[in-house]
Amino acid sequence: MKQVLVEWFSSGGVWGVFLSILMNTLFSLAGFIPSIAVTGANVWVWGPLGGGLLSWVGESFGSVIAFVLYRTGFRMVTGKKTLPWKWINLFNSGSRTRQVRLLLLFRLIPFIPSGAVNVLGSMTTVRLRDFFWTTMIGKLPSTALEVSVSMNLIHIRDQYIYLIGTILLFLIGWMWWRKRVANP
Questions:
Q1: Does residue 182 belong to any structural domain of this protein?
Q2: Contact residues for 150 (Cβ-Cβ < 8 A; gap 6+)
Q3: CB within 8 A of 36, min separation 6: which ones?
Q4: Each residue of 50-83: pLDDT tens digit?
Q5: How far apart are CA 164 and CA 6, in angstroms?
Q6: Quick check: 181 pLDDT over 80?
Q7: Structural domain contains residue 151
Q8: Domain of life here (predicted)?
Q9: pLDDT confidence of residue 182
Q10: Distance from C-alpha of 140 to C-alpha of 158, rounded to nearest angstrom
């Protein structure tokens, strides 16, 4: 799939940029398709900075569009703003600052699928503007990780040590975070 995307993006000229953003947006809208293939193609065609930027913009836009569509559909189907679920009530009863912090935390945890944050966020009372900014900020680390892995996979013969280092750094960060959250 990556090769097809590389061909489309590189042969599209300026339109390849828009196609890349569109593909990332569509992957985000689907909610369950990993975007690493698009990020890898972006990195291959436009390098780590340009490709990473395109992936970040596409994934962020896709998440925000998905949030709006899910929220609209959810409210049309249920006729309610939220569901009377305990965790939703707990989230909604928090201050705006607390909602933003929780959303940002959910975005930063790499094991929580982006689609889940989009769907569950749409069932709360969080403001669209807050969802937008937390998504833009929260997508930065995951996009950077995807770019790093993509770069290392593209140049695996030369940079296998960096790939191992990236994975180890990620695991150490994750363990540190878990320890800190488990024992505040």
A1: no
A2: 36, 39, 40, 42, 43, 44, 48, 51
A3: 146, 149, 150
A4: 999 999 999 999 999 999 999 999 999 999 888 8
A5: 25
A6: no
A7: yes
A8: Bacteria
A9: 61
A10: 26
Which residue has tokens 């780590």? Answer: 48
Sign, CA torsion 121/122/127/130: positive
Position 168 scores a pLDDT of 86
Structural domain total, the chain: 1
Please indicate, yes or no, if residue 165 is contained in any of the structural domains: no
Whether the predicted pLDDT of 110 surpasses 80: no
Max Cα distance, the chain (Å): 56
Alpha helices in 12-127 (DSSP H): 14-30, 36-78, 86-93, 96-108, 114-122
Question: Is the distance from CB of 131 to CB of 64 less than 8 angstroms?
Answer: yes
Quote the pTM value.
0.78
Question: How many Å apart are CA 182 and CA 147, to the nearest integer?
Answer: 29
- Could you tell me if residue 88 is inside a domain? yes
108 token code pair: 């930063």
